[in-house]
Design goal:
Blueprint: H1 3-12, E1 27-32, H2 39-52, E2 57-61, H3 69-73, E3 95-99, E4 102-105, H4 110-116, H5 124-134, E5 143-149, H6 152-159, E6 165-170, H7 174-190, E7 196-201, H8 205-223, E8 228-233, H9 237-244, H10 249-252, H11 257-277
Parallel strand pairs: 1-5, 1-6, 2-4, 2-5, 6-7, 7-8
Antiparallel strand pairs: 3-4
Helix pairs in contact: 1-7, 2-11, 5-6, 7-8
Length: 290
Amino acid sequence: MNSQAESLRAFVGLRTAEPWRASDDRVILVAGARGGSGASLIAAGIALAAAGEGRRTLLVDGNEEVGALHHLLGVTPQVGLGALRGGTRDPHAAVGAVAGPLDLLAGGPGKEGAERGSAPPFAPGERRAVFRRVAQLYRNYDVVVLDAGASLDGVIAAGMPGLRRCLAVTGAEPAAVASAYAMLKAIDATWPGAPVDLVVNRHDDVHARTVFDQVQHAAGRFLARAVSFGGAVPHDDGLQAALIAGQPLVEAATGTTAAVAIDAIASRLMQELDHHARRSMAPFRPIRRP
């Protein structure tokens, strides 16, 4: 079994959690089952689709060291997530406009931080403190999309202030499927009952359904819980070539098969958020940690 899956499984035994409660903020957390799964591209596509519907949307890059979203969107942030350590910077200073109602809180240190030189990655407690402060921004937006990456600590820290839905992005290779199940297990141990959708990237619907059936079967048998099929995003050579050539995602993705698939995923998510907004929501209570 790969090291990512092993570390996720080891994590499960350390958690003491309360049942999940939906956040008042409309937060969608996107997690990669493993590095290179394409979670950043899908998170950015969902945020662009939400903003395209006229929703005030915040896209958050959870990688404080580098971050990929500002490159995908073709912007140069002055301040990034990495600059928020220590509590001295206002999180509002790290938010920049992208286009229309879409804002980005970029990953990495930002231009200012890069000029000061490299900094060590966040410690676990430091990362959670930063995301608690970032969560102060959420009330200003209709939708928040968190690109939490594939690091378990990053996923848990990003989701602690509250969330409505988790998307786990995976490939179809056996190691990726194992990591997807292990990620689901860790999320369920931290937020029992939190809704999780499995999105299979770079594969057609037939292959994606096979992957989903495997994870769903394991989740039902060993976790006694359900997982939803979030959709399939096909491999798209045209999109990849445009991104490699340096086109921003909003231009590169226009009319591509991958963009159409991501738009369909986003449309369904927005409908679910609107549906739940019409119901009274119990407040989210983050789990207590030693």
